[in-house]
């Protein structure tokens, strides 16, 4: 089976604006819509490939009694319902406007649907769906989204391998869409020691016919090593929360990347491309002189008179490698010197008979 790519470039970087634009609006003293567009502009400017929002209503995503599971030092709201209610002002009209704006500025629009209604209205103006880790076992919803017959990014935070396979099978029960399986750790923020980026390699090996990605919830390190390593381990689609101010309070700012982080990551990717090179082991042009000068040849250890039989005691191995290589020793030992050979001379076959 041929591995199909959902996007036509690697890596494909998704900036998850999510609901961060509400806090940016408050900080800048502008409307929520203007803040969302400002963040789209900044994502485009620093070279992001797609922006992603979150589409839901609090009443359809969580019961009113559900408690928090995030870092209360960053997000003081203790009820999940209260938090989702704070950030559920946008609906179909607003997301349609943002999708049109993304098309205008030349960046892909995405939004994760968290209910059937948002899955329906997003279908009008969205080309790729994202299934949240929180919905990985929501098989009826997964099948409903898959019935839209558009590529799906499937996040796998907190999942067992069986749960991932069940979700993939659910998609393929109703559709032939391309699927990208996204490694993710469902912990906000994810401690570096919990990132488990080697799981990306496990997914690559376990799902060889599917594209593999990574949704990152760690705090951005100074050199963007986490995201860069994920790409180097085989994650071709990379997603990370995005903000214009990491110092803002709130659930998704402190572990988000900002434009300067994006620049660092893209610089890393260019450097990786330079150092990764070709996959098949072979001598390189830059090694051509070293192949001659740094390797060893069979050399006369003592003076050898014409007619003497070449024995191991009469030879040694020295640089440069322009004579007979030590690997051909068996073709030299036992031969007779056809001429006098001075000590420290590279032996060649014309000297032998």
Briefly characterize the structure.
This protein has 353 residues and is an alpha/beta fold. It contains 12 helices and 10 strands. The radius of gyration is 30 Å and the shape is elongated.
Description of the molecule:
The protein has 353 residues and is an alpha/beta fold. The chain has two domains: 12-276, Aldolase class I (TIM Barrel); 285-351, Type Iii Antifreeze Protein Isoform Hplc 12 (Alpha-Beta Complex). It has twelve helices and ten strands. The protein has helices at 20-28, 32-45, 58-61, 80-86, 92-105, 116-122, 139-146, 161-174, 198-206, 225-232, 259-276, 288-293; strands at 12-18, 50-55, 108-113, 129-131, 152-155, 179-184, 211-216, 237-241, 297-300, 315-318. Strands 3-2-1-8-7-6-5-4 form an eight-stranded parallel β-sheet. The protein has a two-stranded antiparallel sheet with strand order 9-10. Helix 8 links the parallel strand 5 and strand 6. The longest helix has 18 residues, at 259-276.
Features:
Type Iii Antifreeze Protein Isoform Hplc 12, 2 domains, 353 residues, 10 strands, alpha/beta, two-stranded antiparallel sheet, 14% strand, TIM Barrel
SSE map:
Elements: E1 12-18, H1 20-28, H2 32-45, E2 50-55, H3 58-61, H4 80-86, H5 92-105, E3 108-113, H6 116-122, E4 129-131, H7 139-146, E5 152-155, H8 161-174, E6 179-184, H9 198-206, E7 211-216, H10 225-232, E8 237-241, H11 259-276, H12 288-293, E9 297-300, E10 315-318
Parallel strand pairs: 1-2, 1-8, 2-3, 4-5, 5-6, 6-7, 7-8
Antiparallel strand pairs: 9-10
Helix pairs in contact: 1-2, 2-5, 7-8, 10-11
CATH topology of the largest domain: TIM Barrel
CATH architecture of the largest domain: Alpha-Beta Barrel
Number of helices: 12
Work out the number of β strands.
10
Share of residues in strands: 5-15%
Instruction: State the major sheet.
Output: 8 strands, parallel
CATH superfamily of the largest domain: Aldolase class I
Instruction: List the secondary-structure elements in sequence, H or E.
Output: EHHEHHHEHEHEHEHEHEHHEE
Give me the Rg, rounded: 30 Å
What is the general shape?
A: elongated
CATH class of the largest domain: Alpha Beta
Contiguous low-pLDDT stretches (5 residues minimum) are none
Percent range of helical residues: 25-40%
């Amino acid at each position: 089976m041929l591995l199909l790519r959902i996007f036509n470039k690697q890596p494909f970087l998704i900036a998850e604006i999510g609901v961060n634009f509400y806090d940016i609006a408050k900080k800048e003293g502008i409307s929520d819509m203007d803040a969302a567009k400002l963040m789209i502009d900044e994502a485009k400017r620093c070279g992001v490939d797609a922006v992603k929002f979150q589409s839901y209503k609090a009443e359809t995503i969580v019961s009113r009694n559900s408690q928090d599971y995030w870092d209360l030092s960053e997000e003081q709201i203790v009820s999940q319902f209260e938090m989702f209610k704070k950030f559920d002002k946008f609906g179909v009209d607003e997301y349609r406007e943002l999708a049109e704006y993304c098309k205008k500025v030349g960046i892909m629009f995405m939004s994760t649907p968290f209910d059937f209604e948002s899955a329906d209205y997003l279908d009008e103006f969205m080309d790729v769906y994202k299934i949240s880790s929180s919905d990985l076992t929501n098989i009826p919803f997964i099948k409903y989204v898959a019935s839209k017959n558009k590529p799906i990014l499937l996040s796998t935070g907190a999942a067992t391998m069986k749960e991932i396979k069940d979700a993939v099978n659910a998609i393929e029960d109703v559709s032939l869409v391309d699927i990208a399986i996204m490694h993710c750790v469902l912990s906000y923020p994810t401690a570096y020691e919990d990132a488990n980026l080697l799981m990306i390699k496990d997914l690559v090996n376990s799902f060889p016919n599917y594209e593999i990605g990574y949704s990152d919830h760690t705090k951005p390190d100074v050199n963007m090593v986490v995201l860069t390593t994920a790409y180097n381990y085989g994650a071709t689609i990379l997603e990370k929360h995005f903000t214009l101010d990491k110092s803002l309070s709130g659930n998704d700012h402190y572990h988000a990347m900002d434009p300067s982080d994006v620049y660092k990551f893209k610089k890393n990717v260019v450097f990786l491309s330079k150092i990764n090179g070709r996959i098949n082991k072979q001598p390189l042009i830059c090694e051509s002189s070293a192949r001659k000068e740094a390797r060893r040849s069979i050399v006369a250890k003592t003076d050898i008179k014409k007619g003497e039989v070449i024995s191991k005691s009469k030879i040694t191995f020295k640089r440069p490698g322009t004579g007979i290589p030590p690997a051909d020793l068996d073709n030299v030992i036992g031969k007779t010197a056809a001429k006098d050979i001075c000590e420290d001379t590279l032996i060649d076959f014309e000297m032998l008979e």
